[in-house]
Amino acid sequence: MLKIQDLRVSYGGIHALRGIDLEVPDGKIVTLIGANGAGKSTTLRTITGLVKAEGGSIQWNGEELLGKSIDKIVSAGIAMSPEGRRVFADLTVLENLRIGAYLRRDKDGIAKDLKRVYELFPRLEERSWQLAGTLSGGEQQMLAVGRALMSRPKLMMLDEPSLGLAPLVVQDIFSIIREINRQGMTVLLIEQNANMALKIADLAYVLETGRITMSGTGAELLADEKVKEAYLGKHR
Predict the structure, then answer these.
(1) Is residue 173 part of a domain?
(2) N or C, which end of the chain is more exposed by having fewer CB within 10 Å?
């Protein structure tokens, strides 16, 4: 389980996170929704060690993550598919996937996980020798998720996986998130498409200007009038 308590982060005097508390139970899909600038990406980047916290605690299966190096956090079983996909454009699909396993030395296990990624994303296998920069947006998103899976994580964090993608591609991405979870992966999802995110989430949190303002099951938040007004496009 991932457990965050009183997490505080500031950028040059601006409070990005103002003492948030949240939990991601094993085997669940948890989503964090909120407007741009609410602190969602900051939360993920702090968990992975990319951003330094001002205070609080991030515990992964009882072990404190704050202060640990990024490679130690990845080795502990946490991976992130970043916002904007961030694939290595001048490398092939296969090379991008192998980079995801850069901390691993188990060749047989890497080969097995590569096969698993190709089963989830057949298009990546078809394009394994194609440069990542020439893929469509949806294919790049699949590659970003596949690359994160290659570290064999226990917790997969996804930052805006549907951003800029066509509706049909978004459906595919969310189906794959469900399948990854069905296979035993814990998922922490940040998503501006609140409707899609809440439909697949076991638990959900609303983040507003650095504070958690609501929490509940995905179904509870999907039915909440305040959430509908703010995030689901309900007319006043």
Answers:
(1) no
(2) C
